[in-house]
Prior knowledge:
- This protein has a domain at 54-165: dinb family like domain (Four Helix Bundle (Hemerythrin (Met), subunit A), Up-down Bundle), CATH 1.20.120.450.
- Helix content is 55%, strand content 5%.
- It contains 5 helices and 2 strands, in the order ααααββα.
- The chain has helices at 21-37, 56-74, 81-89, 99-118, 140-167, and strands at residues 128-131, 136-139.
- It has a two-stranded antiparallel ribbon with strand order 1-2.
- Helix 1 (21-37) runs parallel beside helix 5 (140-167).
- The longest helix is centred in the C-terminal third of the chain and has 28 residues, at 140-167.
- The chain is globular, with a radius of gyration of 17 Å.
- InterPro entries: DinB-like, DinB/YfiT-like.
Amino acid sequence: MSKPLEVWLRGPLPDVPPLLQPIAHALLQAQEELHEYLNDFPDSLLWQRPAGVASVAFHLQHLTGVLDRIFTYARGESLSETQMQALKAEGIEDSELKVQQLIEAFDQQVEMAINQLKSTDEATLTEVRGVGRAKIPSTVIGLLFHAAEHTTRHLGQLLVTSKVVRQTID
């Protein structure tokens, strides 16, 4: 059986503005790869940190959190107290967290991101948006692109870490 085409090769996504298609494609590709590589990943390995690198759990939390935070900034909003608490909790070991729970949280965040892309007017893409408490200037397109880029970067790190820690039980 041949591997399916990557998301970007499958054509435009319905209702996503043309200039935002690459962002949606990147997020959906990350989601597919996350599901593929973490299929049957043991909960017991979530917090392993081989050679001191970030754990799979951290990356899963961070993937979800970054999308939430950066898409919030792209809407021109400040982070809520709930978002700030989630940021502080990223990477803090919590034995109650399960792989499936973290994957589902990421899936929900990707869905919300895609919906936001669908409702983003391309005429707003160069509008300035402030990032963080310091309101460091960026643009809507800069933030949305960075969210996709940051997601793929952390996904790559997560995939390597998951492979390394799986080898400890094989």
